[in-house]
Each structure stands twice: as C-alpha cells, then as structure tokens.
Design goal:
This protein is α/β, with parallel strands linked by helices. It is built from 14 helices and 14 strands. The strands form 3 sheets. It has a 7-stranded mixed sheet with strand order 2-10-9-8-5-3-4. It has a 5-stranded mixed sheet with strand order 1-13-14-12-11, with helices on both faces. Helix 11 runs parallel beside helix 13. The chain binds pyridoxal-5'-phosphate (PLP).
C-alpha cells in the first residue's frame, strides 16, 4: 500500500469533509432514545433545522440516505397512476423519475441536455396544456450534482402560480441545502428532499423531508403504499421528542453540532462563501482554457463545478492521476457524462486555502495527464479570492 502523509483531499461533491467538532460530537456515548435527554435533543434539532430549509413547518428526519427521502416525498403525496412532471437535468433527475415510474406513477420526463436547469418556459407550456389538472406534482432537482447546474426554483414556482396550476412542487436539495440559497416557504415548495452528507457537513445516513401544509393535506388521501416512510407516525412521535423506530442517535449529535456551526457563520454568509468559491473555481477553469459544463450564467452551482474535457482526453484518467499523485478525490462524470467531465466539489466545510490546494492539485494533475492547459488558471482563481 502506498504511504500517504497529510490529509486526504475529499473534493467530490459529497459526501464532504466532516469537521472535527462534528466527528467529536458523534463520538459521544449512545443514549436511550426513549429517555428525556434524547427527547430534549430531538425537540431542539427539529426547531433548529427549520431555518436551514427556510420553513416554519415540519421537517421529517429519516435514518436513510437521500434516496429514501426521494421515496418518502413521492409515496406520502401521490396515488398510483398519478401524472408527475419532471425535468431531465442530469443523472439524479433521471434516477428520481426512474423511481417514480417504479412506484407506479405516470411520469412526463422533459428531455434536457444536462447543461441547463429545469426550464420555466417549458413548464409554462406543459401546465397551460394541462387544462384538466391531471399533473399532480412537479419534481425538480434544485442542484443537479451530476452537472453543476442549479435550477431556478423561484421561477418554477412563479409559473405554477401564473398558470394557477394546483400541482405539488417537490424539490431535491440534496446538494444545495446549507450551500446555496434556498427558501421552502417563500418559494411555495411542498416537499423539500435533503441529505446529511453535503452542505450539512455530516457523514451519509440522514435524510429529510420539509413538508408544506398542502403536502400534509395531500398525504391524508395519497394511496401509494407506504409504511416506514409514512410522515404521520414520525410527526406524531416527534411531538414528544421521539421517533417510531430507533433513530440514528449519533448522527443526530453530529447534526446538532453542524447546525450550531451554520448558525454561528450565518446562513447568508454560508451561501455567499459557496458562491465566491464557485466563482473562483470557474475563473480557474476558464483560465486553464477549459469549459465549464453549465451553459447558463444564471444557473452556475455554488457547491460544485463540472469541467468538460477537450476532445480526445479522458476525465477519469485525470482523476486517477490526481488521486495517485496528490491523494485528492474528485467527482467522476456520471451516466452519459462518464469520462467526459470531472467534478470539483467546493461545498461544506471549506475555505480559501482548501480551494487553493484543490485547484493547485487539479492544475498539476491536468499537466501530468498531458491535457493542454494554461497554468494561469490557478492565478486567476487566486485573484478572485484576493479581490473579494
Ligand atoms: C441531487 C442528488 N439527489 C439524490 C441523490 C441520492 O442520494 P443518496 O446517494 O444519499 O441516496 C444524490 C446523491 O449524491 C444527489 O446528489
């Protein structure tokens, strides 16, 4: 085995680096999940997590990865055969619609080129045409982790309002929550799906549904089969600080610490920090003479940047070189982007020098892999960091 010194650079777009204080918090002894100390922790967490979603409503926490929270959003609100509209923004939007079909929903999947977000104009056309209101839900991935493109949820909401369409709005914020500005209540989102392992700076293993009144109302008549994912018993047990099953106690200790960190920095500052690191990363990519995958200036992701390889160069070879030489993991191209892009994660527990080190490693790796790049790229990123 190769000997390594220093810390591994985990610069994939999640799971992200877990802060030491969060790791220490999780190392505390597990307590009785039916006792008073745990009830106090749950009650505190359920209150303190609301501002991160921008909601005053309930947030359901599951001991599951994000995929579980996707399923929960669908099975709690919809019935067999319901029509759902979703947008092919990339790999994760594709997986979510695959799941919806597998659950017995009738999905209209709006095709996309994996370089743009969900198109509000296309949504307007589809909703206008749906005069009988047969579409029961619109599903959008806020930040498509496979492409580094962020859909404009406020504009999507505006289209639902302008067309006076009653469909529920379900939004996946797995790689945006705690990194990119997000407002569940203000944007009229009905179910927000989130996960622990990205902006929330925790290991994988927790996921979330923030739930609007309209979604709660829908859940009373929704007929898709559900048991473990059913919101009702969780919300009921949460009233006394409990869960209807054994919760992931130590991950919840970590969550308490991570929420304290986000609150201490202030959410607007957290979002601004991510946007600034994303801008510096784009400056590096363009300085190298390479192309950012996201094709719309309004939709650049604050949490990751996907870099397109010039023709004839393999992104996975670049990632391999960087892992071997510099002990840094970068995100792979997924699905149809395999080998064509690599993804730089700049989210979560992250600062200027983490970014500088990351971009230095990428630049050196590109050079070793003989991808023609201008070494001025790194300097261009440092200029952005210095100037702001
Ligand atoms: C946007 C998005 N949605 C859904 C998922 C699936 O979540 P999980 O892998 O935690 O089940 C991911 C995972 O990276 C994601 O990035």
């Amino acid at each position: 085995m190769t000997s390594r010194t220093g810390r591994h650079f985990l610069q994939i777009p999640g799971p992200t680096n877990v802060p030491d204080q969060v790791l220490r918090a999780m190392a505390a002894p597990t307590i009785d999940h039916r006792g008073p100390e745990f009830a106090a922790l749950t009650t505190r967490l359920l209150a303190e997590i609301k501002p991160v979603f921008g909601t005053a409503g309930p947030v359901v926490i599951y001991p599951a990865s994000g995929t579980g929270a996707w399923e929960a959003a669908l099975v709690n609100t919809l019935s067999p055969g319901d029509r759902v509209l979703s947008f092919e923004t990339g790999h994760f939007a594709t997986l979510w619609q695959d799941m919806a079909r597998a659950l017995g929903l009738d999905v209209d999947f709006v095709p996309g080129d994996w370089r743009h977000g969900a198109d509000p104009a296309e949504l307007a056309l589809r909703l206008d045409a749906d005069t009988t209101h047969s579409i029961k839900a619109v599903c959008v991935v806020h930040n498509e982790t496979s492409t580094g493109v962020t859909s404009r949820i406020a504009e999507i909401r505006q289209v639902l309002d302008d067309t006076d369409h009653p469909a529920l709005l379900l939004v996946d914020t797995i790689s945006s929550l705690g990194s990119i500005d997000y407002r569940h209540d203000e944007w009229g989102v009905d179910v927000t799906v989130a996960g622990s392992q990205k902006g929330l700076m925790l290991p994988p293993g927790l996921s979330f549904n923030a739930v609007s009144d309209k979604a709660l109302e829908a859940s009373r008549t929704a007929r898709l089969a559900k048991s473990f994912w059913d919101w009702a018993p969780v919300i009921e047990a949460n009233r006394s600080g409990a869960f209807p099953y054994t919760p992931a106690t130590n991950l919840l200790y970590g969550l308490a610490e991570a929420l304290d960190m986000l609150a201490a920095e202030g959410l607007p500052q957290v979002h601004a920090r991510h946007a600034r690191h994303a801008a510096a990363t784009r400056a590096a990519v363009r300085g190298w003479g390479l192309e950012v995958l996201c094709a719309d200036e309004r939709e650049h992701s604050g949490s990751l940047t996907a870099v397109l390889m010039p023709d004839g160069h393999d992104a996975d070879k670049v990632r391999r070189v960087i892992l071997d030489q510099y002990d840094m993991s970068l995100g792979a191209g997924l699905g149809r982007l395999t080998g064509r892009i690599f993804r730089i994660g700049h989210l979560g527990h992250f600062n200027d020098l983490t970014l500088a080190g990351t971009l230095a490693g990428v630049q050196m790796g590109l050079e070793i892999a003989e991808v023609p790049v201008d070494p001025a790229g790194l300097g261009a990123a440092l200029d952005v960091l210095r100037a702001s």
